Amino acid sequence: MCTYLKKIILPLVLVFVSSCVSKRDQTWNALVLGLPEQLGVGAANVNMGLYVIKQTHEPIFRIDKYGQFYSQILKNWERNRDYSRLTFCPNEQLSFDSSTSFDSQYLKSFIDDYSSKMNLSVDSKIVENCLVSNIASDGKRFLTGLTKYENSPTKKVENKNYEYGLGKFEVSEFNKKELIMLRKERTSIGYSKIVFKTYEGPEDLALKDKNFEDFNRVFVTDIPDWVQKEFKSFDVQLLQSVNLVLNIQDEKARKRLFNCIDVDKFRRAFAFGQTKFSEINNILPVGVLGGVSKRVEQNCSIPDESISYPFYNWKVDNFDSLKQYFDQLKKQNIHLSLENHSLDDFVSSVFKQPHPYKITVMAFDATIGSHEPFFTHLVNTNQAVIDSPLTEASPLLENLLKETNETKKEILVEQILTILKKSYYILPLYQEQRSFYYPKRIKDINLGNNFLEFPEIGELKIE
Q: Is 283 inside any structural domain?
């Protein structure tokens, strides 16, 4: 090729390549129903919280498909046969921010706090930039707890409602309407930026925006048709139960509503447009010890006395279907009036005492097979979603969360479920099971195994 042609063609090639690279969309856009008020590791216990924390934080250990522990933030580690002696060598190249490194000093402070939280006797010492921990008992439980995102290394940020972790992303901007996270080390083959935008309802213009990767955090019935046609789908059964909460002081009325509000007819009216439901027999979904795939038994009798209560509705597309079902209930001398509220109002009212609702629908979910998210909000006075918490179950729950023996755990779960069943505060409706949709250009995304529903965006590659 002559020098003259080289001078013309090579710049054109470079411009073309540069143009192609710059046009690759490296922002992960997600439309979400709401964002947690705080984005610390404590938020990993709730659905949206974990979605965020999986991007910004990394636990000490993970467990592979063979049940083996491994770490992405330790240079190396070792244990003895009975887990009574553990050695952790941190990767000191990692840091939370410019002033705090993930070194042995940080790790000792972190492990000391974690040991206290787990109520375990652990003696830890720094030896040649590694941490050696001697554990009096329950060494495997100690190690397993370090695989949870809620127990991830973290650094609180002064005057901020988020924390720094050792994940691939860090929070850049955060408010009620939007969350922006930036990748710490840029990449040319994956995502460098994450934007979570709060959903504003069926008229939200973002539903038409083809630059969005994730519409899965809005109501199933609101997911656009074009997404279902153009994206790849994954069937996922969530660790989430959807329930009718009967926050009524009159036990006789509660029992009557529990038995006479037909589960299938009501859920079809409330979740209008949804036709398939996974049965549950109690507040626990399948995948959590005690969860049973069977519809709850109901035995309705119709006395002459009529009862009337307001139904607190936070959905916007089910007014007609609910009204039709409530008209049917009148034949059983049950009169439910429809009160429509915004989702924001509902979320802000859940932990207020006394609660503004008598009857409403509420979802309880877990990020792992833990009982705490399901039982705490019915037992714990400070976090209860009912006006009269079931405090008699509190010591049982406390023992359950400490117990490691599966047989003993099963007994404790059954005891708590018996108390809950006899109270008639919760009518189980269904376990959430749905299709998740993601763009076909994303490589290696795999959902559906072990109730997994949150992609690790830093691990994804795009075409």
A: yes
Residue 22 has pLDDT above 50, yes or no: no
Total domains in the chain come to 3
More confident residue, 332 or 36: 332
Q: What single-letter amino acid sits at 293?
A: S
Q: Is the pLDDT of residue 19 over 50?
A: no
Q: Lowest mean pLDDT of 87-91, 266-270, 275-279, name the range.
A: 275-279
Domain shared by 331 and 289, yes or no: yes
Mean pLDDT of the chain: 89
Q: What digits encode the pLDDT tens for the residues 379-407?
A: 988 889 999 999 999 999 999 987 878 89
Q: How many CA atoms lie within 13 A of 105 on its CB side?
A: 3
Which residue, chain included where needed, has tokens 């250009």?
Answer: 441
Report pLDDT for 225: 95
Is residue 8 one of the residues assigned to a domain?
Answer: no
Write out the residue range of the structural domain in which residue 40 sits.
25-55+158-231+448-462
Q: Give yes or no: residues 296 and 345 share one domain.
A: yes
**Given pLDDT bands bounded at 50, 70 and 90, which one contains residue 12?**
very low
Q: What is the pLDDT of residue 13?
A: 43
Contacts 24+ apart (CB under 8 A), 408-414: 409/289, 410/289, 410/290, 413/284, 413/289, 413/290, 413/371, 414/290
Residues 262 and 374 reside in one and the same domain: yes
